[in-house]
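seq as requested:
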Amino acid sequence: MPLDDRYQLAFKLYPYERSSDQDAAAPVRHPVVIMGGGPVGIATALDLGLQGIPVVMLDDHEGVGQGSRAICFAKRTLEIAHRYGCGEPMLDKGVVWNLGKVFYDDRQIYEFNLLPEGGHRCPAFINLQQPYFERYLVERVRAAQAAGAPIELRGKNRVDAVQTKDDYVVIDITTPDGPYQIQADWLIGCDGASSPLRKMMGLDFQGRVFEDNFLIADITMQAEFPTERWFWFEPHFKSGDSALLHKQPDGVWRIDFQLGWDIDRAEELKEGNIRRRLDAMLGSDINYELVWTSIYTFQCRRMKQFRHGRVMFAGDAAHQVSPFGARGANSGIQDVDNLGWKLGLVLKGQAPESLLDSYDAERRYGADENILNSSRSTDFITPKSKISHVFRNAVLDLAEHHAFARPLVNSGRLSVPCTYDGLPLNSPDMLEGPERTRPGAPCPDAPLGDEFLLDQLGGDFCLMGLGIDLPEKFGAHGLAVKCFNAPLNTALKERYLGDTPSAVYLIRPDQHVAGRWENFDTDAISNAIARAIGKDNSDALEH
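struct tokens:
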């Protein structure tokens, strides 16, 4: 069912314009071309453009399509968006939530708080329709363009073919004015789960397809439901084997019903049958209007590799998970956060091309973590055998009265950023500090008076000193590293020091910890920087 006239979120954000490349005598070569818009493609263009790297984004549409699609954007995604300069409008528009409740049949069995700890700029989650999220990204792109960022967004530019060479890619494009051809030093595929680019290159997914169907119904209603995530196992209203309720902006609510595998899709999508399910759930006294409905199935799969020479894949083009846990768009933005700084250093000649192999390694690691969590959620929500169904329901009964059973309840392990344990860019851990800030971990935010820690770390390599005075500047291996002496407070001590009296942290541009030490050690830090950018430790120091 399409959206009704009051819920048109199809923003025409980058209408077709003829480019000078279409009139060039020979194919124009670009440093970076992105295939596909959407949140991942636009965020990639923004990340690179803000670094001063010329980038062209090609999309076969002219902006955001209809339907709310992704709605749950996690804390880490919001922190990345804030660093890009578009986090505030997302927070202003989004519906903030930290609390979730789990129901079994007709009773609540427990509730959970995803962010019980204070001192963070961003909440655990906001609910925000994907078209709004994309619009705020594009508005930030427009502001960056006005300030000189070399970003081009080309709508109605459909990629029809690619040819990969040793050190560039040839791209054939069709537009309303006819075909043309360009070249790219690097091509990034952000073209979604069906990824034409992946098919053009003869690549595929590995993984698991789940045999189940879920009905999405976005409705407007005036109701007293709180701003929380509510999930039902075997709901008493019998509208499906499970159900999920979320509030969105504009008075819209997202409701999911689990339908099972052997269904008649056309029959289930009839308005009368959708209303029958909703009426049973909401009651006859709730007035509502349907604005968008769809049925989806899902897979937990990924590409074997995310880098193929001069072509890299990100977001749903590289990996897919079930929607339980809000891991789709959020993991895609984390792909961008990982790839952007690495490709930037390579293009600026500050890191070897081999650094990009770490994008492949780290984000495959992240995808495997997401797939594992998503698969476990799906298996718990949709038991595949009689005995697993009995076990699931026994856990739910126990969880109502016993706290030890609640971690076993899995209504969707919600998205958190990956810690890159044991991967090559990490230096050995030389601090007996908190486990949560070990090498490979994302930096937790903390309050600094009226500001926040992540703002001070920024988007470059940074040395952070706690209980120790760092030099005003530090450089190694061609990089100027920001030095920041953090004023100690309770939150910083708990999150970064623990019982140690002092610490020095080397933090990557994506705000993951590269290394940490109790004291300032020039050689150790220089070696850690070399490791983090894929250079040999023999490079000369510059400090």
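The mean pLDDT is 91.
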